[in-house]
Amino acid sequence: MIKKMYLQKLFGAILIVAMCFSMFAGLFSTAETSAVSTGTTTVSVIIGGDNAPVIETITPNSGPTDGGTVITITGRDLDYVTEVTLDGLACTNIIIINSTTIKCTTPAHPAGAVDVVVTTVEGWTFTKVGGFTYIAKPKPPLPLPPDTGLFSLGNFGTVTSYDIFFIAAILLVVGGVMFLVACKNKRSTYKHGGEKRSKKTKSAKKR
């Protein structure tokens, strides 16, 4: 009886060990199968440049306050630039040509000079102080007020201020001509009278 109980316990222990081994073997098999099915995956990571970017020139360096100016920034280590700002406002449509040239479109901004800042993926920044100047559009000339007329002449129309100026100019010219003619006639009359008096003086001496 004792021997039978001992065999049962032994058999139960062996069964438990076998079950545990089977469970662990299944886990290892699943992990191995997963690793094999996954295979090798290539991941591209942008590390960025080791040097800070540098802005040398900005062309053009001025534009309207409405924005929309496409500027070309040249310098060094610009190939990892992810942001361009003008006085804190983001430049749009950033195009990286190469490590020395990028392009972008300016945002709208009030008139005046602003700083241009480029930022790379690693956080490097470079500031071009006063690199771009916003220029305000010239104000259009004020239109002349409509001339509604000073007074009406009935069927002949309305006399406007422009008509008065035109008539005054004509009168000024005519008056000047008449004044010159009068002065010329006066000098001619005075000269003729002097000749007559000189002749009377000569006749008196003969007597």
Explain how this protein is built:
The longest helix is centred in the last third of the chain and has 46 residues. A hairpin with a 4-residue loop joins strand 8 and strand 9. This protein has a domain of 82 residues: Immunoglobulin-like (Sandwich), CATH 2.60.40.10. The C terminus is likely disordered. 40% of the residues lie in helices and 29% in strands. It is built from two helices and eleven strands; from the N terminus they run H-E-E-E-E-E-E-E-E-E-E-E-H. The chain starts with a helix and ends with a helix. A five-stranded mixed sheet has the order 2-9-8-4-5, with no helix packed on it. It has a four-stranded antiparallel sheet with strand order 1-3-7-6, with no helix packed on it. The protein has 207 residues and is of the alpha+beta class.
